[in-house]
Design brief:
Blueprint: E1 15-21, E2 26-33, H1 35-41, H2 48-65, E3 79-85, E4 91-99, E5 102-109, H3 111-115, H4 123-127, E6 131-138, E7 143-150, H5 156-167, E8 172-179, E9 186-194, H6 212-221, H7 226-229, H8 236-244, E10 251-257, E11 259-260, H9 266-273, H10 278-284, E12 291-295, E13 300-304
Parallel strand pairs: 5-11
Antiparallel strand pairs: 1-2, 1-10, 2-9, 3-4, 3-6, 4-5, 6-7, 8-9, 12-13
């Protein structure tokens, strides 16, 4: 193991730990959300199944977001957007995004239909025949690419595994756990991927699913329990240590601190609205001559006076 990865290190809430296992051609992310998660969830009075679903989605978004080369703490960095949607499901829309350590998320749902499903609805009962779209907007190159897969499996984590396998041909293992608590929600996740040839940009084929290095790494990572992911006494470094302490080398790097990143401000909306023709802005104004904008992410209204 490298010197910087020991059980004495302490990385707890609202941070992503990035790691690689060079000899196994593997890379990974581990994250645990706490106060930031509570801030995002508190924007709306979500029922428990929706809170759990959004918590899982935010963990996935944080891990996948740091896979971008320009996903660090930089206001001009790239953005990862994850969206799950259906036209006939109880969950009409779930959307989360990550940019430079900033997280935000929102769920639109049919409360009456949700109450009929009971306390532990399945992913299919929530979405029906839905789809999952993952979009990378890369600021450094100006490129944008998106993958869309059916929203299948028992969880959003399984749907994300399918995305990486189908859209990027990258074998991926993901584990996520969510725990509601008296002092707030805790959610944690682990993502591990196999990169054949050990480099990004090299050929990556589905036949590598049976590569001995990936079989070894996925077997170790698969032993991670949900209790470990949400154990507030277990640092992220200690969790990776448990999994890979017998490997000859594991390299680690702390991702940027995670924070609620809703970007709604009066100035932001003024800039957007100023791009509309005057006749359209006139139709938007209320009796006081202002345009009221409702931000779904943070549940706030902004009265814009142009």
């Amino acid at each position: 193991m490298t010197k910087d990865l020991t059980p004495d290190d302490e990385t707890g809430f609202d941070r992503t730990l990035i790691f690689t296992v060079p000899d196994r051609d593997a890379r990974g992310r581990v994250v645990r959300l706490g106060p930031v998660l509570d801030r995002i969830l508190s924007a709306h009075d979500y029922p428990t199944p929706v809170r759990n679903l959004l918590a899982e989605a935010l963990v996935l978004t944080a891990m996948i977001g740091t896979l971008m080369k320009d996903g660090g703490k930089d206001g001009d960095g790239g953005q990862l957007t994850m969206q799950a949607q259906t036209e006939e499901g109880v969950i009409e829309l779930l959307v989360c995004d990550y940019r430079g350590g900033e997280l935000r998320g929102y769920v639109r749902h049919d409360r009456a239909r949700l109450d009929e499903l009971g306390p532990n609805p399945s992913l299919f009962s929530l979405f029906g025949q839905g789809y999952l779209a993952i979009t990378f907007d890369l600021a450094a190159t100006g490129q944008r690419y998106q993958g869309i897969v059916p929203l299948e499996g028992a969880s959003l984590a399984e749907a994300c595994e399918s995305y990486f396998l189908q859209s990027e041909q990258v074998p991926t293992l993901i584990r996520v756990a969510v725990e509601p608590g008296d002092e707030g929600y805790v959610a944690g996740g682990l993502l591990v991927q196999h990169l054949p040839e050990g480099e990004e940009g090299r050929e990556r084929l589905h036949v590598q699913l049976d590569h001995p290095h990936w079989e070894h790494v996925s077997a170790l990572a698969g032993t991670t329990s949900g209790a470990e992911l949400v154990d507030t006494s277990l640092s992220l470094e200690a969790l990776v240590w448990r999994l890979f302490h017998e490997e000859s080398e594991v390299r680690t790097l702390l991702g940027p601190p995670l924070e609620r990143g809703c970007r709604c401000t009066v100035e932001h909306y003024q800039d957007i609205l100023s791009r509309f023709p005057e006749e359209e802005r006139a139709s938007m104004r209320n009796d006081e001559g202002r345009i009221v904008v409702d931000c779904a992410f943070c549940s706030r209204e902004f009265a814009i006076d142009l």
